[in-house]
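User: I'm designing a mutation panel for RNA-binding protein KhpA and want to avoid disrupting the core. Could you give me a predicted structure to guide residue selection? Please restate the sequence first so the numbering is unambiguous.

Assistant: Good idea. Sequence first, for numbering, then the predicted C-alpha cells:
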Amino acid sequence: MRDLITVLAKALVDHPEDVVVSEVEEKDEIVYRLSVHPSDMGKVIGKQGRIAKALRTVVTSAAVKHNKRVSVEIVS
C-alpha cells in the first residue's frame, strides 16, 4: 500500500523527492500519512478535494484484496 501511495503521489507533484508516506497502525485500521512539499499540497488535494478523494478510493479498493481497513491522511 505504501508503495502504491508513493507512486501515485510522485506522479502528481513537482517535487517528488519530498514525498514521504508513513504508516501508523490504529486499533483495527492502518493509517497512511502522506506528506508533500508545501507548494504541492494543492496538486495532491485537487479542486474541491477530487484528487485526494480518488487517491483514497484507489487505496481503499486495493486494501479490500488484502482484507484490511485503511485510510489516507494528507499532512503538511
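For picking mutation sites, this is relevant: The domain at 2-75 is CATH 3.30.300.20 (GMP Synthetase; Chain A, domain 3). Strands lie at 20-26, 29-35, 70-75.
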